[in-house]
Amino acid sequence: MVAAGAALADEVGLGNLTMGALAQRVGVRTPSLYKHVSGQEDLNRRIAVLALSEAADAVGGAIQGYAGRDALAAAARAFRAFVVEHPGRYAATIGVEASGPDDPLAGAGRRLLDAFSAVLRGYGIAQPDTDHALRMLRSFLHGFATLEAGGGFRWSTDIDESLEWLIAFTDRGLRAL
């Protein structure tokens, strides 16, 4: 049920995902969905867990065997591809809070954070700067990918070139630390 909801969110946008639309998509009556999820909020939360897990798999798999700029580039490309291909499910991850350390949302979020932390380890960033570097990396990746997914880059410059430029810029900044 969650996978079907995530796929529908990718098609119509998370804001347009409703229990009724999901029931119609899977060919059941809306009350039947409540055997699987407790409501819209639970569905969105489960989609967020799925999205974070999938993003962690994508980024973690992409950076295997790489370090430094190569790991940064692999992570950036993988994350961008995930968000552009799955904008609805990725939107479910924004602003949702884990209820505690045992919440599946916390575990999935940690896995994605671990993948980004692995990228930064290749730069030898001092511990006091690690959190700042993670926030910068997330801001750059989130901003670029969500702008692209939302059609925010409508001028003629090639988007792939822009991403490569941003990767090079970020690499120089991280090496300068």
Walk me through the structure.
- By secondary structure, the protein is mainly α.
- 73% of the residues lie in helices and 0% in strands.
- It contains nine helices and no strands.
- It has helices at 2-12, 19-26, 30-33, 40-63, 68-85, 87-91, 104-121, 127-149, 159-176.
- The radius of gyration is 18 Å and the shape is globular.
- The N and C termini lie far apart (45 Å).
List keywords for this structure.
mainly alpha, 73% helix, 177 residues
What helical percentage do the residues reach?
A: over 70%
End-to-end separation in angstroms reads: 45 Å
Q: What integer is the average pLDDT? A: 96
Rg over alpha carbons: 18 Å
State the shape.
globular
| Structural class label | mainly alpha
Strand content: under 5%
Query: In sequence order, what are the helices and strands, one letter per element?
Result: HHHHHHHHH
The stretches of 5 or more residues where confidence is low (pLDDT under 50) are none
Number of E-state strands: 0
- How many individual helices? 9
**Main beta sheet strand tally, sense and closure:** none
